[in-house]
Amino acid sequence: MPVRPVTHFTWQVLRTVKRSKKPLTGRDLRLAPTRNTKDGSFLTALVDQGLLVAVTGSSDIPFEATFSLTEKGQHAAEYGEYEYDLKSKSAPVPAPAPPAPKATVVAKKKR
């Protein structure tokens, strides 16, 4: 499996969760108040990547949810990289939608 490095900010978030004795809220994990972290999408991305798991709360309000590390997240917090799965090439490709019928133009005869 290929290995993907984590960014410095992601590594800081993962280390913060690893050092904590209890699950932290998303608000506690917003270490840098930048425009990239103001909506909490970075937390949702970490959950989607499998590095964090939401203990309580939902992805609708990520700053109120509490998070803890997964096994993959613990490895990334320690070494700064994690293994990820490549997209399967044998996955079925959805069929394209049929083309819309073209409107026919009827020419009027001149008198």
Short description:
This protein is of the alpha+beta class and 111 residues long.
Describe the structure.
Residues 102-111 have a biased composition (Low complexity). Residues 89-111 are annotated as: Disordered. This is Transcriptional regulator. It comes from Gemmata algarum. It is a single chain. The protein is an alpha+beta fold. The protein has four helices and five strands. It has helices at 8-19, 26-29, 41-49, 71-79, and strands spanning 3-5, 24-25, 52-56, 66-69, 81-83. It has a three-stranded antiparallel beta sheet with strand order 2-4-3. Strands 1-5 form a two-stranded antiparallel sheet. Helix 1 packs across helix 4. The N and C termini lie far apart (76 Å). The mean pLDDT is 84.
Find the structural class using helix and strand composition: alpha+beta
Molecular shape: elongated
| Major sheet size, sense and barrel closure | 3 strands, antiparallel
Q: For the CA atoms, what is the radius of gyration? A: 23 Å
- Read across the widest sheet, the strand sequence of neighbours is 2-4-3
Residue share in helices? Answer: 25-40%
What is the count of DSSP helices, taking H or I runs of 4+ residues? 4
Low-confidence stretches: none
Order of helices and strands: EHEHHEEHE
